[in-house]
Amino acid sequence: MTNSSLSKLSVDQLKLLDQNVVWHSFSQMQGYQPLIIERADGCWLYDIDGRKLLDGVSNMWCNVHGHNHPHINQALRDQIDNVAHITTLGLSHPNTIRLAQNLVEITPAGLNHVFFSSDGASAVEVALKMAFQHWCQQSNPQTSRRKFAALGNAYHGDTIGSVSVGGIEHFHQKFDPLLFECVRLPGPNIYRTELDPANATEFFAQRYREILKQHQNELAALIVEPIIQGAAGMIVHPPGLLHQLREITRELGILLIADEVAVGFGRTGQMFACEVEDVEPDIMCLGKGLTGGYLPMSATVASTEIWNSFLGDHGEAKTLFHGHTYSGNPLCAAAAIASLELFELEDTLNRLKPKIEYFQRRLNDLLDVKQVGDIRKFGFVAGVELVQDKTTHEPFDWTTHRGRNVCQRALENGVWLRPLGDVIVLMPPFCVDQAEIDLLIDTAKSAIEAEFEAET
């Protein structure tokens, strides 16, 4: 096809090509049904068939202020007239510098140096390499520190390094022969245990201390998703556990990497999840909401101690040998700067507080549904787990695709959701209003009820 003919494709032609040419993420392409969005505004998506759909998951958790925001749009228009791309391999751009300084000012104390990438997994990959190389470049090199610790059911991305520290069997098992060894800590999900929630923090902290101490001299870092483990099914950690992990890693001399790719930029009600428990990690990974959901950009923000271990003469080869062609891209940086400006201009976090309260209160209505076993919620994030038996917490066989079926029913009623197995994720943009929250939760509830209506 010529460029001219491609621009004139019919709706049916676009759908056919989408099924056979585009390889979609985490999607079985046999039988794939296209959903093609041609425009969006605020919390709403508009597809090529003319349907209007509420974006119930912020387009994979990244759209912060809503789609088509005029402030970010204008920032991109202003930048495109100057230059679209300047590499950071030997060059820089004012936007890149301004954004780096902005991130230094708003992230937890001690994080003073910013490395830009294009996605969350790459930010994690950089963090792992930084941590390992940091220990190798001490005045007394600690080359035995070549392992990483991570929580059970962790998800840190899909590159080989990030999959190695990931722990979701369904996603990662096939790649086992390619992965490096990881010290795995038990995931702090108490839903299917007899553990008293009041004792959960101390129970897990004690277990973590034992395991980390056992591997103390071979660990470069512990990597953790602060407060909420996203792809694990929105697992909310027991209160105070993140703070305990910081204390334990500091006590044992192990670096702490905070993967805030999913939970950063307001999702927990704070700008960063680490702030919920006043934690200062050694390295922080950022992505998704960094540009307000506009453009692919991520950042790895490191402490001065780590930065200093990479300084030296060229002959010492202490350079971080890692790079991305589009690292620090000026257009992406313009969007990120504009997004951070909006947090101040629109007083986003303060205005979000009553929405969080209403959102969490309305979620309680789902507890009456027979197949809703657990609702895990924190800030503007919720995971609704579907179960066969509410008393025993018996799950469904994953091959029955109950979560996917529920989301399809919601789609047919004007709300776009995407499940994590049989956990229905609810994570709207911050600009959502009360009526849209009602629509989101009422539609999710009716979709769950409809899925199991014939079985009750």
Describe this structure in words.
By secondary structure, this protein is α/β, with parallel strands linked by helices. It has 2 domains: 35-65 and 348-455, Aspartate Aminotransferase, domain 1, CATH 3.90.1150; 73-345, Type I PLP-dependent aspartate aminotransferase-like (Major domain) (Aspartate Aminotransferase, domain 2, 3-Layer(aba) Sandwich). It is 36% helix and 16% strand. It is built from 15 helices and 17 strands. The protein has helices spanning 3-6, 11-20, 58-61, 70-80, 94-106, 120-136, 160-165, 169-172, 197-214, 241-252, 304-308, 330-345, 348-363, 402-412, 434-452, and strands spanning 37-41, 44-47, 52-55, 111-117, 147-151, 182-185, 219-224, 228-229, 235-236, 255-259, 283-286, 298-303, 372-378, 381-386, 415-416, 419-420, 423-426. Strand 16 and strand 17 (423-426) form a beta hairpin. Helix 9 (197-214) runs parallel beside helix 10 (241-252), helix 13 (348-363) runs parallel beside helix 15 and helix 14 packs across helix 15 (434-452). The relative contact order is 0.15. The model has no long low-confidence stretch (mean pLDDT 96).
Structural key phrases:
single chain; 15 helices; four-stranded mixed sheet; seven-stranded mixed sheet; alpha/beta; 2 domains; 456 residues; Aspartate Aminotransferase, domain 2; Aspartate Aminotransferase, domain 1
